[in-house]
Amino acid sequence: KKWLYCLLIPALSSLVRAQTTPAANHVRDNYQKVEYKIPMRDGTKLHTTVYVPKDASPTNKYPFMMQRTCYSVAPYGPDTYPNQVGPSGTLMRDKYIFVYQDVRGRWASEGTWTNMTPTVTDQQPAVEANAKKKGKAPARQSALAVDESSDTYDTIDWLLKNVANNNGRVGQWGISYPGFYTIAGAVAAHPALKASSPQAPVSDFFFDDFHHNGAFIQAYLFTYPVFGIQHPQPTTEAWYNNAFIQTGSNDGFQWQYDLGPLKNVDKYYKDNFYWQETVEHPNYDEFWQKRSIIPHLKNVKHALMTVGGWFDAEDLYGPLNIYKTVEKNNPGTYNTLVMGPFGHGRWSRETGHTLHSNIYFGDSIATFYQRNIEAKFFNHFLKGTGDGKTGLPEAYLFNTGRNEWKTFDKWPAADAQTKQYYLMSGGQLATNRVMGSTDAGNGSTLRFAEFISDPIKPVPYTEDITTTQGFTPFNYMSEDQRFASRRPDVLTFQTDVLTEDLTLGGEITAKLKVSTTGTDADWVVKLIDVYPPNEPNHPYMPNKNITLGNYQQMVRSEAMRGRFRNSFEKPEPFKSGEVTDVTFRLQDVLHTFKKGHRMMIQVQSTWFPLIDRNPQKYVENIFKANADDFQKATHRVYDNSIIEVQVLK
Ligand code: PG9
């Protein structure tokens, strides 16, 4: 017995000791946490947690680095510390006064929350300037006029006056929805806001996250806690099982909530206010337009560094369009862009999170970005001279075909050459029209490729149909597309084997000439890098048993709900059988198709369950389509359809 105790006691005591000495926590050891309720101009108090470096003093002052979020600033309570503060471990160790705030109406803050708060307070300066010009008193904006811009302004003003040992400068960052709050804070900004980095910022939910050109991204049926409902996303296989039981564009949530044929959809509908808003606003109407931040980026005076991921399935439209809009409207502003080979927000983690589908670009790329780009930007404007001479380029972009960073002094690149490729009915992707194999039959030289599009047997968006791919699928953004090119309802066009490298840098525009025997149709265009048969493995492929020979790597893809081809606000049916223009933009790329590879374009009309299915018969609101609205149709792509690309030397 005795020997048992002598064994047990030291073991137990080390266990007890382990419990009493908490694990090392850099934040707790180096920062002092204080929680405030900060009053906004309309009296609403926002919960704000501040982490002040313990060595801050009147002779050792620090700038603020702030994130405003709808996803909670947990952990709450005075003696609880997160493992990291700030956008990366690098900045945490560089020390700032880190500020985290629950936005209005969320978590521990007062007020009413709405999705993508409409920006309303930025008109006031123009109203006052205008009135002054006319020698009149400006119409005062009601103090109750508030938005994310005014809440950010009021928060900064309060922090400067109430948090000791700050150096009078403020930075703001945020990824995704917090990226929206960051860019919204840059509108009519407080003069102490010196540097903002909206990262994968949501700019407009009709083009980011929930919709792509009007097609609904069904993963959002299983939405974040932020919308009150969270359910695990079903596997693609489960969606297919459901799709054949209950047609209708939102079969996913009927199946998921075990609703059966519309058993409890009303309950789901009532529980999820944002879902109601989405269903009631199928077109780009005032509901969506007033929530876009893009029209408000006219007066950004301080430094901006927008960050995005080439493989970001949630918010790719946002970063690219925010950067371009600020560049256009505020030419004198320090405004830069970083695009890395990342999935959504994966640049912010120091290990293992840049994994992307079968191709893995390595942790070092994320830490390179954090230490050599992000930290440099904030340190310069918040601790340094702030004169804009950061040593960073206008655009720091990763070439996903060469697997290397490239810097540009302008984006889109000044020396980009526009090049047009025709989609030939014989399957060629050619810069000059070669006669295709199928004659339009009406004596014209117009030839076409055609397929039967069946919403009950839709094209899967991924080959991996037995697992779910995180909240919003993103592996598909660079996945092998051979599973699709074998299908009769996917058209494939490819160049000859390239005799030299071909680098695309910038936007891609699909200018399709199509027809359908139905009266509505979606069009999906995919840009693919076809590897040669004998390609050695990708330098960044952890899954070594996947050979790259003939691999069809997705480079860029986009859907266009055809009813919006002339206007996102005013949808129009197709005239059955009539050749119709469908033109839309695929988001930018920087990708080298190496010599020996081919460039491929695929065109299809379903992309399941990534986007909801189009009945292919025009109905007022696809969210309310009935099962018998869904019909097969024959789709044609005529050979004067063009894919317009930007080619770099
Ligand atoms: N942009 C992402 C998102 C927005 C809304 C709902 C769900 C996700 C994000 O904030 O991660």
From TrEMBL:
It comes from the Bacteria. The keyword Nucleus does not apply. Pfam families: Peptidase_S15, PepX_C. Gene3D superfamilies: alpha-amino acid ester hydrolase ( Helical cap domain), alpha/beta hydrolase, Galactose-binding domain-like. SMART domains: PepX_C. Residues 1-18 form the signal peptide. GO terms for molecular function: dipeptidyl-peptidase activity. The keyword Disulfide bond does not apply. Residues 375-643 form the Xaa-Pro dipeptidyl-peptidase C-terminal domain. Keywords: Hydrolase, Signal. NCBIfam families: CocE_NonD. This is CocE/NonD family hydrolase. It comes from Spirosoma aureum.
